[in-house]
Amino acid sequence: MGQLLRASTIFLLTFLFACAQIQVPVTKEEKIEAQVEIAVQEWKSWYNDYRRVAPIVYRILRALASTDSIKEEIKRPSKNIGWDDGARRIELKGQNIIDHKALEIIAKRELPDNGYLLIPLPTMPAESAIRPWTWVKEFKFNEKNHIFTYITEDEEIEIPAEGFPIWIRFFVSRSREINAYAAQDKNGYFIVIHRGICQFLPDDNQLAFVIGHEMAHILRGHLGKVKGVNLLAGILGLSVAIFVSPDLGNIIYGGIMAKYSRGQEREADFFGLCFTHLAGYDIEIASKAFITLGSSAPPSELEQFFSTHPYDAERRAYLKKVVKWIKEGKTWHQIIEEIRGESS
Ligand SMILES: [Zn+2]
C-alpha cells in the first residue's frame, strides 16, 4: 500500500512540475557572459593542447634533422630552413565579440581590435622570452640574423629563431573533431592536429605516433600525388609562415581531406612509427594509438577518423611485427632493406 502511495505521489509531482515549467528569465547580456565563460575555457584548453603537441613535433623534427639512418627515404618538404621562435600569434582582427571578450579575460587587460596575442611554446626560445597572452602591435622577422622582433606598447622584444632543416609547419585547431591531417598551401606543407584527438590520446607516445604518421604522408611525398590540395592556397590566404588561425581546422577540413591509398596509409604507419622511435618515444605503446582511439572515443565521432585512416587487423599485425624487429635490435635501415629485398 505504501509503495502504491509513493508511486502515485511521484506521478502527481511529475505531473505538477510539467504543468508549471520553471523558466528563469535571462537577459541577452547574461547569455553573452555565459558564452564568454565557455570561450575562456576553450581558449585555455586549446593552449594546453598546443603546449602538449608542440614539444612532440619539435622533438620529431630535431630527430629527423640529426639522423642519417633513413636520410634517403625522406623527401625534404622544402629547400629552405624553417625558422621558428616558438611564439604563436592569435590575430585579434576578425575575432567575434565572444572570443574577443574571452581573450581579454585571459590576457587580463582590455584589448584593441588589432594586433596579436602571443603564446610561447615549450622547448623553444619564446618560452623564456615572453609571458603567455602578451599583446603586440606588430612583429617583424629579420631574414639575415633570424630574429623575430615583437613590438608591444612600451618595448621591443627580440627572440632568436631556431632553424629546422626539415621543416613542417603545424597547427592545433580548436575543433574537437577526433582527427589530424596533412595539407599544403602556397607556403608549403603543414599538419593540423584537432583538439579532439589530443583528448582521446592522453599518452604522448601515442599522440607522437599520430603526428609522425601525418608527417610521413608529407615526407614520403604522398601529398604531391593528391589532387586538389593546392586549391587551399587561395581559400586560406595564409601569408605568414607561422601564423595561428584558431579555426584553421574548420575552414579547410571539409574541402580537402586527402584520400590516400591503402599502400600510402601503411607506409605512413611504418615511417610514423620510425619517426616516433627516432625521437625517443616508446613505440610499443605508440603503435597502439588506433586501438586506444577505437576503444575510448565515441563511435559516432570516430567515423570520420576511420574513414580517412582505415584501420584493420592487418595494419595492427604489421605494426606489431615492426615493433618486434626493432626490439630484437634491427635498425630501420635493415628493416627497409629486408622488406625491399623480399618484395623485389
Ligand atoms: Zn594517414
Describe this structure in words.
With 344 residues, this protein is an alpha+beta fold. It folds into two domains: 29-164, no CATH class; 169-343, no CATH class. 51% of the residues lie in helices and 15% in strands. It contains 14 helices and eleven strands. It has helices at 2-19, 28-66, 97-107, 126-129, 195-200, 204-219, 232-236, 248-256, 262-278, 283-286, 289-296, 299-308, 313-327, 332-343; strands at residues 82-84, 87-91, 116-120, 134-136, 138-142, 147-151, 156-160, 162-164, 169-173, 180-185, 188-194. It has a three-stranded antiparallel beta sheet with strand order 2-3-4. Strands 5-6-7 form a three-stranded antiparallel beta sheet, with no helix packed on it. α2 (28-66) packs across α3 (97-107), α2 crosses α6 (204-219) and α6 packs across α9. The protein is flat, with a radius of gyration of 24 Å. The protein starts with a helix and ends with a helix. The model is unreliable at 226-257 (pLDDT under 50). It binds zinc ion (ZN). Residues 213, 217, 260, 265, 268, 309 line the site of zinc ion.
